[in-house]
Amino acid sequence: MKKWIILLAAVAVVALAWYFGRQYALVPVWAQPKFGQVARGDIKVPITAAGLIHPYQVIEVKSMASGRIMGVSVVAGDFATARKPLVVLDPIDEQRALDRAQADYNRAAAMLTQARVAVERAQVATETATVRLDEIMAQGQIVAFQKQKDEDLAKAGNVSAQDLVNSRAQYEINRAQQAAARIAIRSAELSKQDAEAAVISQGAIVEAARNTKEDHEKSLRETTVLAPDDAIVTEVWVRPGMLVQSATTGFTGGTPLMKLADVSKKKVIARLDEADYGRVLNISPLDALPEMPELRAAAEQDAAQLEKRGGLVRITVDAFPDQVFEGRIERVEPQGKLNAGSSIIQFDVHVEITGDKRHLLPLGAQAQVEFTVENELNALRVPAEAVKTFEEQRGVWIKTEPEPGSHEQFGKRFVPCRFGISDGEHTQVIEVLAGHELKEGTEVYTKLPPKPGEAE
After folding, report:
1. Which of 61, 127, 203, 383 lies at a CB distance of 3.0 to 4.6 Å from 36, suitable for a disulfide?
2. Which domains does the chain have, with CATH numbers?
3. Which tens digits make up the pLDDT trace of 187-241?
4. What is the pTM (predicted TM-score) of this model?
5. DSSP state of 73
6. Is residue 129 within 8 Å of residue 185, measured between CB atoms?
7. Backbone dihedral angles phi then psi of residue 307, each to the nearest 5 degrees
8. 58 in helix, strand or coil?
9. DSSP string of 256-277, one letter each residue
């Protein structure tokens, strides 16, 4: 009897399980729906680009002097302070060149003095010829008076023919002397002009000789090559014993000694894909835009966009994975470049690294630059996976109680919406349509439950 009771109970349990199993389909774990919530928060849409960290400027050091290197005081990686000696050359060649330049200058200066004396002599000759002309003209008045007197007496027969001829001859001689004196004055004036031109010419020679002498004086000082500013030594190309050529006299522009990196500022030159160029251009400061007047004028007139032109970016590097560095867009290049080995066009964006931590970043390191091109604060948002399309409308499915008699384990209702920006994790809800409401805390489906028969 007891066995029959146990058997009947077992049959009843199986029957009930069969009945309820028919009413509510069991959903396996892999087919279970997933949920998110409606909430408020910030949404930022970033664009990322990779680039290398560069110094503010790269300085190639050359020597103004020529000669043999006697010593190199730095190696790659050293920090050179301003005016620190970097390379020392043997000064003998530059000293000899300076001695020759000094002799050339002294010779040119002496010849200039001679030219100035020639001007003074020409001036004296001009004045002497002028005085001589005045004297001859005074004598000419006497001769002319005597000639006129003798001619008047000759008409009365009171003077001899010889005296009349003599008076007339003296008059002609005086006229010839006046002409000769005027020629002498003109000759002296021309000599003075020649002397003055010689002074100008010789003055130019003296100036050139002085410049040459000063260049050699500077070259002699440059036999000790100094760091032009605070910088890091990145490359050294010379060693003691090598011969170097001056940067001012060599046909090849001189021998490069080393390369320095000015790290008073640092920047990232990031390569931006062509598809992202316009959006990054829209957030760049006006002074960072390409120098095209029409482009900048149009940007200045867009008042709404001006507020977004802060140009601030986030920078991360593998060397410091737990830190975020700040930057600002410094310049956007207008000319695209073809990425080697592909058909992708990219644009260089120069980003100045700001903030107190920039000194940590090593030169040449790979950096990831994040540009925030769209930003909404305290936006009503839903998980991006919750955005679905139903009957050609976009919206979200919210979780509800199953309708009585529907035999469904999960209830849902579609709420059409108009969406804004999305960062891939959250999507902004701009407007809820068709009179529905979407409150904070409402659960929405990120994965819908299976339709009847799908999970079996």
Report:
1. 383
2. 47-54+266-375 (2.40.30.170), 64-89+223-254 (2.40.50.100), 94-221 (1.10.287)
3. 888 988 998 999 999 999 999 999 999 988 988 888 999 999 999 999 999 999 9
4. 0.62
5. -
6. yes
7. -65, -25
8. strand
9. EEEEEEEEEEEEEEEEEEGGGH
